[in-house]
Write a structure and sequence with these properties.
With 376 residues, the chain is mainly alpha-helical. It is built from 15 helices and 2 strands. Among the domains are: 60-96 and 104-242, no CATH class; 252-281; 346-374, no CATH class. The protein has helices spanning 2-20, 42-50, 69-90, 106-116, 145-154, 165-185, 192-211, 226-233, 235-242, 251-265, 273-287, 304-315, 332-340, 343-352, 362-375, and strands at 124-128, 134-140. Strands 1-2 form a two-stranded antiparallel ribbon. Helix 3 (69-90) crosses helix 5 and helix 7 (192-211) packs antiparallel against helix 9 (235-242).
């Protein structure tokens, strides 16, 4: 209980500082704030630092957590949509009194359909206990970074009319505002005025998130995370000091990883993977600032495509078509009769035509008789 009170005090303190602090004042309690400055006991300090109650192997300051801001906050928003839909389904008349397997999940299905309509593979399922029975706890597909960007871009326009009407406007605004904040955070060389605008919008976004507590599942002061703290307190300082956050992106490392994998897996000799990694990395480093120049093509004979090619093709020996072989048409009546004849009757017909055979199979006898009739 003491830990909760300490953490609650920290959140109250943060909200109050949001309203009064000067972002660029180095004497401000927000400027350069680190985990060492939190007046908390050790257990809560570890919880704030790394999201865990037990001491981590390596401590990570809050300034180093901005890379995970997008995935972590989108996870919170997505989880809120899923949980809100689940609660809405339970509150449907007589639905909560039914067994879990017999309950309808219309609102949850609508949310899943909206997310899948964004071009994202997504599903929700119920976890099971060790005995195989339902635990009442639900989980959903863990999305990649590119999928979360798709949700930020496309999902807000699709959930209108799917979530509760009383919450629709606020929830859509939360999604759209965070998408705008994320794009501002990734701008190249933002001006001081732009950084200040980012701070104001991030602060307003957190205040809106906190104000929806009690009305929307998953929102409120108790759901504020260190990543939201970084978004408001630390990201603006990084944008100001380093002329933007784009240079801290991990796309270059991911691109290098993709190139190395492609190069290594397409080789038949895969014995020395570290060597391949070093060679590809060095090659990209050397050639990264250069573009491939196409080879110049010089025509050796400028008249070839206009006149020579026509003369060469006209001199080629043309192959004469094979003469058509006329095949006598068979009498449809005789063909029809052949199909109705038995094996003994066909053999008698063959004897009359002077054809002797030991074949007994009906289909082969029919073929022999047809050939004999064609010859006649």
């Amino acid at each position: 209980m003491d830990e909760f009170n300490d953490l609650q005090f920290l959140l109250d303190d943060d909200i109050e500082l949001l309203q009064t602090a000067n972002l660029y004042d180095e004497n401000s309690p927000l400027f350069g704030r680190t985990t060492e400055s939190f007046p908390l006991n050790s257990d809560v300090l570890y919880n704030v630092r790394s999201g865990q109650k037990k001491e981590p192997i390596a401590l990570m300051e809050l300034q180093q957590m901005f890379i995970l801001i997008l995935p972590k906050i989108v996870d919170i928003l997505t989880k809120s949509l899923v949980n809100e839909s689940l609660e809405w389904d339970i509150k449907v008349k007589d639905n909560g009194n039914k067994a879990p397997k017999d309950r309808t999940s219309k609102h949850l299905s609508d949310i899943v359909t909206c997310i899948q309509a964004c071009g994202v593979s997504f599903n929700v399922w119920g976890k099971r206990n060790g005995d195989g029975k339902g635990s009442g706890v639900y989980d959903f597909t863990s999305l990649m970074g590119s999928d979360k960007k798709k949700l930020l871009r496309d999902l807000p326009d699709k959930i209108d009319g799917v979530i509760k009407p009383t919450q629709s406007e606020s929830v859509i605004k939360i999604w759209k505002d965070f998408d705008k904040i994320y794009h501002m955070m990734n701008e190249h060389n933002p001006s001081p005025e732009r950084v200040n605008e980012f701070f104001e919008q991030a602060k307003a976004w957190v205040e809106l998130f906190v104000s929806l507590g009690g009305d929307v599942t998953g929102f409120g002061k108790q759901h504020v995370t260190p990543y939201m703290h970084c978004l408001v307190y630390h990201v603006p300082n990084f944008m100001k000091r380093h002329n933007g956050m784009k240079k801290f992106t991990g796309k270059g490392v991911e691109k290098n990883n993709d190139d190395v994998r492609k190069f290594h897996l397409t080789k038949s000799n895969k014995w020395d993977a570290p060597k391949d990694i070093l060679l590809v990395s060095k090659r990209l480093q050397v050639t990264g600032q250069h573009e491939r120049v196409p080879r110049m093509y010089n025509k050796s004979n400028t008249e070839y495509w206009s006149t020579d090619i026509t003369e060469i093709r006209s001199k080629r020996r043309k192959l004469s078509a094979a003469p058509n072989v006329e095949i006598p048409e068979s009498n449809s009546d005789s063909v029809f009769n052949i199909e109705n004849l038995s094996a003994l009757e066909i053999k008698e017909k063959l004897k009359e035509l002077g054809v002797q055979t030991r074949v007994r199979k009906l289909e082969k006898l029919q073929d022999i008789l047809k050939e004999a009739l064609h010859k006649d």
